[in-house]
Amino acid sequence: MFKNYFIKNLLKIKNCKLKINTIIPNSYNLPPNYMWSHTPVLTNELMSVVALKSGDDAIDATVGGGGHSKIILEATAPFGKLLALDTDLKSLKIASINLKPYKGRVTFINDNFTNLSGIMKKEKNIKAKLILADLGPALWHLTESEYGGSFMADSSLDMRRGEEGKTAEQILRTFSAEKLAKLFLVYGEEKLAGEIAGFIYQDRKRVKQLTTGWLANIVSYVYKKHRVRQKSHPATKVFQALRIYVNRELDNLADFLPQAFAAIEFSGKVAIITFHALEDRLVKSYFKSLARDKAVKILTKHAFQASYLEQRKNPSSRSAKLRVAEKLSSTFVWPKVEVQEFGI
């Protein structure tokens, strides 16, 4: 199926006419009257499966605004400790404000969860019974102009959650039409990838700065041309593909999973919340391979998804899936995760 989609879309191109452990600085500026609220997803499902007790330690590998961390800290009160990681300093600042009532029990670390093994060597007092990774982008990554992750406003195309690596604009500037098409098709599962890539390739020469509005308009034009209607914005899949690629989300997840099982205590749980099919398939496949070796017990036969009521209250939960596995071995050598190479 992938091959047929790819060839079909590439043919259309020719016919297009158009750390690290950093202390959070007090000087880190945030907008006035900033909204500190953060709505975590699948909290009831998560807490019912992981069954934390008072005094248990935990690691929130992607703390974001601290929504899940708050619930974990309440469940493990009064002495349970929490390690809160994030690559984004703004997220850590927001989390530190939201979790202020739990000061003394939380350690904030500005680092990528791919460095979990190194972090745990320094944080030896943490005996984690839960490691959670919520892989969804923080709300401010999707809505604020500095990140360039939203197609609802015209802003620069950055999309990086930290300060390392190429920006989305640099990728759109330098990739060939064929490479862009493959990126949109593989990471966004965008069926009109070839034609969208062709228009980007042609129009980028004319535009001095590539912006979110410029990209959204191109995708919307192609969708309108083909009279495609859908519930979400036409540019959703293209923006997702760029975000995944810019932040190496699949590679990072693959690096993280074996480290998480190595770091967790015996009978501890590793819980992963994904928001797109590529991530979910990777987690599902890895959990199953470990279960076959009897190194873990899968606690979610089928991934938990948000209830209708939660989806109504929090639309961002619609695509969320939760999978949880319990560690059954302290001697098992946790294998690396195989990530399919797409040559992008």
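[next item in queue]
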Amino acid sequence: MHGRRSAGFTLIEVALAIVVGLLVLVGATLMYQQTIMSSSYSKAREKVQAACGLIEETAAANSGNYPQPVAFETIWGVRRQADATTSPWGGTVGTFAVAAQGMVPVTGWPAAPWTVFSYRNPIYAGSLGYALGNTGATQSATDVLSGTTTTFTTYLVGVWDNQANAPYFPAGGR
């Protein structure tokens, strides 16, 4: 007497299907995270470019005098309210008691404008940093993402990421 063979999957076939499904899920998750991060970097770069444009526009309207950081903080908050209150990495910008308009103003060239405030402090996450230089002084900044160092002579703008690393996409007057 021959037993009837069951019509179904073996344990090995089920295990293989689960493994393949998990691999597809992990791959899709990684692609999603990479897309989100790429989008965040694009938003951060746009934020820095918008700040530089507004700084230059303000300087042009004031006989070539660049705005002082605290004055620019107010201009930034009024003219770019969405940038001032939202982080490129999602959520709101830092603690507004520190960066009232989503910006951390730095007067003069400190030894390192990005360490004047506690480096890696989450209250700066997503904030824009703006430092205005003293006449004849220079300031170098190394982009966290690319490792490229650039020297600036008039002003420097960058952004803190969601882990409070800075600067991302430093730009400014050379």
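[queue empty]
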